[in-house]
Amino acid sequence: MVKFADRIQPCDNGLSDIFAYANDPALISFAAGYPNNHLFPQNELQTAFNASLTDSASLQYSSAAGLKSLRAKIAAHISDTKRTFNADQILLTQGAQQGLDLTAKLLVNPGDGVVVEAPTYLGALSAFDAYQPTYYEVSLQDDGMDLSVLQKTLMTHSVKFIYTIPDFQNPTGSTLSLAKRHALLQLAERYDVIILEDSPYRDLRFSGDSLPSLASLDTTDHVISLGSFSKILSPGLRLGWLVAAPQFLQPLTELKLGNDVQSSTLVMNAIDQYLTEHDINTHIAKMNRAYVVKMNTMLNALDRYLPATVSFTKPTGGFFIYLTLPAEIDANQLLKQVILPEAKVAYVPSGSLFPVSHQANGIRLNFTNLDNDTIESGVKRLGKILTAVLRQPKYAKL
Amino acid sequence: MVKFADRIQPCDNGLSDIFAYANDPALISFAAGYPNNHLFPQNELQTAFNASLTDSASLQYSSAAGLKSLRAKIAAHISDTKRTFNADQILLTQGAQQGLDLTAKLLVNPGDGVVVEAPTYLGALSAFDAYQPTYYEVSLQDDGMDLSVLQKTLMTHSVKFIYTIPDFQNPTGSTLSLAKRHALLQLAERYDVIILEDSPYRDLRFSGDSLPSLASLDTTDHVISLGSFSKILSPGLRLGWLVAAPQFLQPLTELKLGNDVQSSTLVMNAIDQYLTEHDINTHIAKMNRAYVVKMNTMLNALDRYLPATVSFTKPTGGFFIYLTLPAEIDANQLLKQVILPEAKVAYVPSGSLFPVSHQANGIRLNFTNLDNDTIESGVKRLGKILTAVLRQPKYAKL
After folding, report:
1. Pairing of strands B194-198, B159-164
2. Which residue of B has its CA nearest to A194?
3. Are A362 and A350 in contact (CB under 8 A)?
4. CA–CA separation, B151 and B141 (whole Å)
5. Which residue of A has its CA nearest to B267?
6. Strand extents, DSSP E, A165-303
7. What is the full DSSP assignment across A87-119?
8. Which one of A5, A194, A235 has the shortest CB-CB distance to B61?
9. Where is the Aminotransferase class I/classII large domain (chains A, B) (predicted)?
10. B39/chain A closest Cα distance in angstroms
11. Which terminus of chain A faces fewer neighbouring Cβ atoms within 10 Å, N or C?
12. Are strands B223-228 and B320-324 parallel, antiparallel or unpaired?
């Protein structure tokens, strides 16, 4: 049998058990991170694809960097009072996910340090793992990473980049405060470390004012920033973007060529067409009005049904709420042995979201792709079984 | 300045000079490998995208492996009298290019041996380079790789995979004979080495009978095989496929998840819809009728205008014809210094297509995306200047 490369490791992220129940009509799944099917601008996209397909060039190769007029529109969308971006600072990618792969590919030799928030996005770890980094976890507070822990890490270890989801973090929903954004940039500059900013949920703010992105505050070329149409338009199109200074963008574009030549000309043309005809911010505002109701339905139900020993985050946007169980509980074992078979509720257990400590007592819940009644019923079922379980000392061993 | 990973090397593939002339209306470019814009089934694809966009599921996430009904149709398309494939043996990818990246990612540690045909496809080298292989070149004969050279390499070096384009090879147009297909598989089995079969041009046969693919002849799970809709339907859609045994397909699918989560649900649904409504073989036959005329136009013009010291291949399909100049000529220097500025003709020079020997006296010409008159004029200009150049001893130093 041919030997695989060292980067290939057997993986068990605790999600395969959920698939065994996927076809059970009684299952209520809070596990996936899907936008709501009913909120896609389906007719508008149909019109845009139709228009794009009147030009045969949409079916031809185009360029690795991606359609320039679309990059210009993205640049305008991400510009703010702090900084104006332009098309030449942007590379189009297959969702933000490809930006994670390309950035790690650009920077990481086996053993190089990568700082991640703890917990963090599972898909980022699966992108980074291929380059065999040494992970350092930095715990999260209500206003983002604990920067004293970060500084200690940067002082004592060689780190290539700091991976952060500053807006409505996956899985906790927390947002990095403005003060911490400035402090984080100062640390990156002082220790000459890249910040990889991943912000697919940035526009999904339900209250308060948007904070400037790390990219817009960066004056020393220390930020590579990722965005995506997946959460604000459609994940089925697979289009995202990467913003970086030229010294990074040029080799990242070469890596994109090697990965998959370029993104789909048709998809790029159709999204460009959609953005010409429609104000995406109007669409985003409509989504946010629906999502905030779902989030509040979930928060109210958690308040009502969860036992007092389980705490949960209260985000102001995004896709997720994060529950913390008593420290001795393993949410993955609990899911497999009790919650899936008895309560027919699914969630993402936290163990695989902490690449070093594997803290197992966390639960990620998604609220965007279920109707309000289902959210209420699912949380009720989850709360009931957690209440029962946490009363019984034997579950402390799960 | 943050240090890049060791895999990032400065690259000069000799193609950047062509871009300086790209906007010159007098330029005739045989450099790109584009299918013909006029041959896309544009209306049929428009109808297919329209139909797919009546279902909001086309805009949602689906699966890393890709749409099962499309995988089943691909399996039927690639099945032959030797072997019947099924959907579960297939992973959908971003063009065949992503299959090159994923396979190297699965198998190659820095320094591991990779055998390539000499010359080979530049994009494959740019995919493989990221995993820092040691390349071994195997020279090409009219009927494919020189297997005695290959055997010597396998006897004396540790090799992870043999990369081959068996049908209408890029850049030479040569096709691996049936006898050599069997012999190659025997070598792969004997030395327990993977064959990476890359066959995007397979269906573009202008005469003779199709030979069984290496995948269809493989009885010992030694072949990973790549195909693509890019050359038979549209490269702007970015959809290809990878065929492999389960022990490879499962980790390759995990790598695909980390690379970009999945291919576009919409694009997969629309191609599936197109294949339901239309016989792609009828479309392919129509393309082949147009391409064979273009190829013969080019071959006839080469016969007429090239000096006798320049030889060229005579393919029976595909996209390319390969010219061999006298050994002392550097086709890249010649392109930059004489042919682009004076004759306004572009081609791909061979230096970067040989990763070890950098043999510089070859030229790749594409014939698919130009009309017949332009092919004739371009070859005439190329022949005229090559005749002049090769008469002058000073060009021997180029």
Report:
1. parallel
2. B2
3. yes
4. 15
5. A237
6. 194-198, 223-228, 240-243
7. GGGEEEESHHHHHHHHHHHHHPPTT-EEEEEES
8. A235
9. 47-382
10. 9
11. N
12. unpaired
Half-sphere exposure of B155 (CA within 13 A, CB side): 6
For the stretch A144-179, pLDDT in tens is 999 999 999 999 999 999 999 999 999 999 999 999
- The tokens describing B292, both together, are 């064979």
Pairing of strands B134-141, B320-324: unpaired
Q: What pLDDT score does A1 carry?
A: 79
> In chain A, at which residue ranges do the beta strands (DSSP E only) sit?
28-29, 90-93, 113-118, 134-141, 144-145, 159-164, 194-198, 223-228, 240-243, 311-312, 320-324, 345-346, 348-349, 362-366
Contacts of B127 in chain A (CB under 8 A): 258-259
Which residue segments constitute the domains of chain B, with CATH numbers given?
A: 16-40+282-397 (3.90.1150.10), 58-277 (3.40.640.10)
Give tens-digit pLDDT for A200-247. Answer: 999 999 999 999 999 999 999 999 999 999 999 999 999 999 999 999
- Taking the C-alpha atoms of residue A15 and residue A30, their distance in angstroms, rounded to an integer, is 12
Distance CA(A185)–CA(B352), nearest Å, equals 41
Give the pairing type, strands A90-93 and B240-243: unpaired
The partner residues of B339 in beta bridges, in order of sequence, read none
Q: Partners of B93 in the beta sheet?
A: B240
The pLDDT assigned to B397 comes to 55
- Percent residues over pLDDT 90 in chain A: 93
Q: CB of B190 within 8 Å of any CB in chain A?
A: no
Helix (H) or strand (E) run with residue B29 in it: strand B28-29
Q: Closest Cα partner for A114 from A32, A198, A171, A177?
A: A198
- B216: helix, strand or coil: helix
Spatial separation of the C-alpha atoms in residues B243 and B236, rounded to whole Å: 22
Which residues contact residue B32 at a Cβ distance below 8 angstroms, ignoring those fewer than 6 apart? A61, B366, B369
Q: With CA atoms as reference, report the closest residue to B183 among B159, B207, B162, B208.
A: B162
Of A121, A61, A17, nearest to A335 by C-alpha is A17
Among the partner residues B34, B61, B94, nearest to A61 by beta-carbon distance? B34
- The radius of gyration of chain A's CA atoms, rounded to the nearest angstrom, is 21
- Chain-centroid distance of CA B109 in Å reads 24
Q: In angstroms, rounded to a whole number, what is the distance separating the alpha carbons of residues A366 and A368?
A: 6
B134-141 and B28-29 strand pairing: unpaired
How wide is the angle at C-alpha A210 spanned by C-alphas A181 and A373, nearest 5°? Answer: 120
Judge whether A190 is closer than 8 Å to chain B, CB to CB.
no
Distance between CA atoms of residues B279 and B132, nearest Å? 42
What integer best gives the mean pLDDT of chain B? Answer: 96
Q: Kindly report the backbone phi and psi dihedral angles of residue A98, in degrees, each rounded to the nearest multiple of 5, phi listed first.
A: -65, -30
Do residues A380 and A363 make contact, with C-beta atoms less than 8 angstroms apart?
no
Tens-level pLDDT at each residue, chain B (398 residues): 789 999 998 766 656 677 778 788 999 999 999 999 999 999 999 999 999 999 999 999 999 999 999 999 999 999 999 999 999 999 999 999 999 999 999 999 999 999 999 999 999 999 999 999 999 999 999 999 999 999 999 999 999 999 999 999 999 999 999 999 999 999 999 999 999 999 999 999 999 999 999 999 999 999 999 999 999 999 999 999 999 999 999 999 999 999 999 999 999 999 999 999 999 999 999 999 999 999 999 999 999 999 999 999 999 999 999 999 999 999 999 999 999 999 999 999 999 999 999 999 999 999 999 999 999 999 999 999 999 999 886 665 55
CB A209 within 8 A of CB A180: no
Per DSSP bridges, beta strands B28-29 and B348-349 are unpaired
- CA nearest B247 in A: which residue? A1
